[in-house]
Amino acid sequence: MAGPWFGINFECNKALNAETRRICGTPALYAACRALDLPVLIVDGARDIRPRSAVDSLERALPRVRRVVLPEAGHLPWVEDPRGFREAVASVLG
């Protein structure tokens, strides 16, 4: 929730993202995700500064997944784009 009072520490974020990319999910975690036999909705903010690789790998691991990327949202899409978030959730509920 970066804003006028809480800016983004890009240097720290870059270091954390590089470290996260080195750490891969475990085979057991991947297998557990593959075994989930239920629909999953991922609502993702395109402006999230966190690594895309984490959400991408989750999407690949889940067998029944739908992903909605909200272009104007960041890490908290339900706060940053509540209308888009509601629409994404409503689209899978019926």
Please provide a brief summary of the model.
This protein has helices at 10-22, 27-34, 52-61, 77-80, 82-93; strands at 40-45, 65-70. By secondary structure, the chain is an alpha+beta fold. The mean pLDDT is 86.
Structure description:
The chain has one domain: 3-Layer(aba) Sandwich (Rossmann fold), CATH 3.40.50. The chain is built from five helices and two strands. The chain has helices spanning 10-22, 27-34, 52-61, 77-80, 82-93, and strands at residues 40-45, 65-70. Strands 1-2 form a two-stranded parallel sheet. Strand 1, helix 3 (52-61) and strand 2 (65-70) form a beta-alpha-beta unit. The model has no long low-confidence stretch (mean pLDDT 86).
